[in-house]
Design brief:
Layout lengths: L6 H11 L5 H16 L2 H4 L2 H17 L12 H6 L1 H8 L1 H18 L4 H27 L4 H12 L5 H13 L15 H26 L10 H20 L1 H26 L26 H6 L6 H6 L21 H8 L2 H15 L11
Length: 373
């Protein structure tokens, strides 16, 4: 749809279209406006989910794929230095805090049934998955302390601070190997993957931080353990909700956190399903490259997610900023954007029907490799 636009126009269009990250929180406001106008709060509590996982997949295929990669010599250096992209991600921190405060107030003051409460909690969890975890993921890969802190605070707002440690020092080291709890295996259903991912990613974060502290001569529960601080901030946020709204407020904070980090782990499942790095003769795994993550180049969801779907390039070059991530045709390609694939992953028979043939085609001629997944 946009392939005929001049490349400079397309880059400028994308630059300002990344501001669509404000849309998920605005969907919460739209939900309230709809039930205030038409009633049926229990129905419109699900509006955010219907938009993200119903309308966005359709728009993805209407709008189509991103036709441009930035030129490495003339465009990447300039784009990487533009502060607009950086500040857009940093502004997501106050937006996430405001979203939690607003959603908590609505949860406490609206006469929802249990079905409506579930829809509202999953809606704010979806907002947290996009605004807190996705943006937090972008920030924790960057070196400046401001971005590191903002990323940690975003993850703390959904009680998943361990991701800050485990993702960078664990997942990116062991991705697409049996050692990585965030890399799903060929034939493994989402519901087999999730419990293992929750528990082992939590444990791995503590082990990695304990190992770091041991090298410095400190114990695992030393005050320099950053996990203690980040989880402490999550506990303070839960306490704040408790002060405002009682035990139901604590439940709200924990529940929105659960749905947010569950969305993250579903996306982890999608991003690496069935792919693995080959083991070399020396017993080590081959270097991570653009063939070890599923790629999706659908423009709309990439704009919403700061190009997270160009995941192959991210894993091969994790320090690259989102605005200069590239599409690689040689990477294994998902049939749709993440909004569609999350829904598909929830239905294992359909997931296997769609994805298993793609994995098998990718390893055609070396089918024995599937035994290692």
């Amino acid at each position: 749809m946009l392939e005929h636009l001049p490349k400079p126009w397309m880059i400028t269009l994308k630059k300002y279209a990344y501001a669509m990250v404000v849309v998920p929180p605005l969907l919460l406001l739209a939900s309230e406006a709809l039930w205030s106008r038409f009633g049926h709060a229990d129905v419109f509590a699900w509006f955010t989910l219907a938009f993200v996982f119903g309308l966005v997949p359709l728009l993805d295929h209407i709008i189509g794929k991103d036709p441009v990669n930035p030129d490495e010599d003339s465009e990447v250096p300039k784009l990487s230095k533009q502060q607009f992209y950086r500040w857009l991600t940093l502004l997501c921190l106050p937006m996430q805090w405001a979203s939690i405060a607003y959603a908590g107030h609505i949860f406490m003051t609206t006469d929802f049934s249990l079905l409506g409460q579930l829809g509202w909690l999953m809606s704010i969890g979806t907002v947290g998955g996009v605004v807190a975890i996705n943006v937090g993921h972008e920030l924790i890969h960057k070196d400046p302390r401001l971005e590191q802190w903002a990323g940690g605070l975003l993850l703390a707002s959904v009680s998943y601070a361990g991701f800050k440690v485990e993702h960078v020092r664990g997942h990116h080291v062991h991705v697409s190997t049996p050692e990585d709890a965030s890399s799903s295996r060929f034939g493994q259903s989402l519901y087999q993957f999730l419990p293992h991912a929750y528990w082992h990613n939590f444990l791995n974060a503590w082990k990695l931080e304990a190992k770091r502290l041991k090298r410095k001569g400190h114990g695992a529960f030393h005050w320099r353990n950053e996990l203690i601080w980040w989880y402490g901030i999550s506990a303070l946020m839960a306490l704040g909700c408790g002060v405002l709204w009682g035990w139901l407020g604590v439940f709200f904070f924990v529940a929105q956190s659960f749905f947010a980090f569950t969305l993250l782990e579903i996306i982890n499942y999608v991003e690496h399903y069935g792919l693995h790095r080959r083991k070399l003769d020396n017993g080590r795994y081959e270097r991570t490259n653009v063939e070890h993550s599923w790629n999706s180049n659908y423009l709309l969801t990439n704009l919403f997610l700061f190009q997270l779907q160009r995941h192959s390039d991210h894993h091969a070059y994790p320090k690259r900023r989102y605005q200069v991530l590239r599409h690689h045709e040689q990477s294994p390609q998902l049939p749709s954007g993440y909004a569609s694939m999350v829904v598909l992953a929830l239905i294992p028979p359909l997931w296997f029907k769609v994805m298993n043939p793609r994995v098998e085609r990718y390893y055609r001629g070396e089918e024995h490799q599937l035994q290692g997944t």
